[in-house]
Known about the structure:
This protein is an all-beta fold. 2% of the residues lie in helices and 73% in strands. It contains 1 helix and 11 strands. It has one helix at residues 155-159, and strands at 7-27, 32-54, 65-86, 89-110, 113-116, 119-135, 140-151, 170-182, 187-198, 200-207, 213-218. Strand 10 (200-207) and strand 11 (213-218) form a beta hairpin.
Amino acid sequence: TVDQMDVIRRRWLDNHFYGGVFYxxxxxxxxxxxxxxxxxxxxxxxxxxxVIWAEFTPDNRIRDRYYDNNGFKVDAHGYLKGxxxxxxxxxxxxxxxxxxxxxxxxxxxxxxELADVxxxxxxxxxxxxxxxSYTLNKQNSLYxxxxxxxxxxxxxxxxxxxxxxxxxxxxLYNLEVGYRYKTTKGFFNANVxxxxxxxxxxxxxxxxxxxxxTRTNVE
Length: 219
């Protein structure tokens, strides 16, 4: 009975990415500019590992896959953004909707053990942004903006968790205020911002079986 032996393994990726984008512009010639756009893409990724040499394994079993799984991600988005010039003000806004469908099928190695990583998750994100700039004169201007942004966990966050303890998506609230000074000989910009996160994904200090860092949500 053999309960341990030397093994050489190789871990592979076979990835395909495709999609498309579109946009259209409108300008009324009176300071209003509007852009409508969007896009969709798909990522199809095979993840698998082969044993390329083993001390006590028959030659006809070499290069057998000891794990094999597929990750498929659909990411679609649409947005409407615009600017409007009024006297010394320029107002701008950006409304984005984003849909994500993430599916994992198969078996993968998680923390040294083979596990079924089959999962499916969908996200619907609304990411608005708005603000304005004010021109003091030809050289000086002020600006301010406020934005909300959402971001999903990455593949590693999913495969190292179960649907019961799956990480939550991040939400960021960002407020910025700034000042610009510009001449033909130079440029100066000062910016102050405040960022507040919900469920920020941060490193824990732990590493997985291939040396990658793991993450968890914090308030």
